[in-house]
Amino acid sequence: MKIFSVLLFCLSLSASAFAQQTSANYEELQFLKTFAGQTAEFVKTELGEPASVVKRENEGGKVEFWVYENKVRQGTSDKVYRYTQIGIANGVVETLGHTNRNINNP
Fold first, then answer.
1. Tell me, what CATH number does 76's domain have?
2. Containing domain of residue 81, as a range?
3. Is residue 49 part of a domain?
4. pLDDT digits (tens, 9 = 90+) for 22-68
5. Is beta strand 92-99 parallel, antiparallel or unpaired with respect to 72-73?
6. How many CA atoms lie within 13 A of 47 on its CB side?
7. What is the pTM of this model?
8. Dihedral (CA of 98, 100, 105, 106) sign
C-alpha cells in the first residue's frame, strides 16, 4: 500500500508539471505590460525557447519573429491563444500579437 501511495504521488507531480508547461502563463494585458520593450534575453528567461523563429535583416538591422504556443489567455477568460508572436528588432521587443489561426512560416 505504501508503494502504491508513493507511485500515485509521483504520478500526480508529473501531471502537475506537465500541466504547468502546457498551460497559459499570462492574461493578455499582463503579457503586454510584462514584455513590451523588453530585451530578447528577458523573453527567453521568462518563456524559454520559442516554438519557431523567422529571421530577417533590413536597413534598420536584424529582425526576428518568435512564436510561442499556448502562453496567453484571452482577456480574463479561460480561452487560450494558440500562438503568440513576438517581434524583436535589434534585440528589443517591438511588436506583440496573438492569434488562433495557423501560422505558416514563409
1. 3.30.1450.10
2. 24-99
3. yes
4. 456 899 999 999 999 999 999 999 999 999 999 999 888 899 999 99
5. unpaired
6. 28
7. 0.73
8. negative
C-beta separation of 96 from 87 below 8 A: yes
* Count of CB atoms situated within 10 Å of the CB of 39: 12
For residue 89 the three cell numbers come to: 528588432
Rounded distance, CA 106 to CA 76, Å? 32
Q: What is the DSSP string of the chain?
A: -HHHHHHHHHHHHHHHHHHHHHS--EEHHHHHHHHTT-BHHHHHHHH-S-SEEEEEEETTEEEEEEEEES-EESTTSS-B-SEEEEEEETTEEEEEEEESSPP---
